[in-house]
Amino acid sequence: MSDHRLGDIIDDHCIKCRRITNHAIVSLVNYEPAKVRCRTCYHDHDYRHEIAPPTKKELKKMELFKEVLASATPVGLEETAIPEVADGAAPAAEPAKKKARGKKA
Ligand SMILES: [Zn+2]
User: Cα dihedral angle (60, 49, 11, 51), rounded to 10 degrees?
Assistant: First the structure.
């Protein structure tokens, strides 16, 4: 699969065409396509392995997801803080009892 040559026609996603189109290999790096040219609009760009860049809709989704994460993080920190307080309270009760006994004796 890695026997690409300059000028070979491969599939890739074109931003301008907004779809997978035929692309001619313009440059190779380590026998892998580095730059390609869309055969439909002749737009040169880096080879993206047929992966479309995130659309505006997807970017908005990611922003919303980030907001949810940001609002959820403080809650998670509070939850981890509560057991720590409980751990500290348990050992503190024992020395207090010993002190009380010592006073009696
Ligand atoms: Zn194109």
Answer: -10
Q: In this predicted model, what pLDDT tens digit does every residue of 44-101 receive, in sequence order? A: 999 999 988 888 888 999 999 999 998 886 655 555 555 555 555 555 555 555 555 6
Q: How far is the CA of 93 from the centre of ligand 1 (A)?
A: 73
Q: How far apart are the first and last CA of the chain?
A: 87
* Domains, the chain, ordered by start: 1-72 (2.30.30)
Residue 45 CA, ligand 1 centroid: distance in Å: 10
- Residues 38-52: tens digit of each pLDDT: 999 999 999 999 988
pTM for the full model?
0.54
Cα 15 to ligand 1 centre (Å): 7
Gap between the Cα atoms of 11 and 1, Å rounded = 13
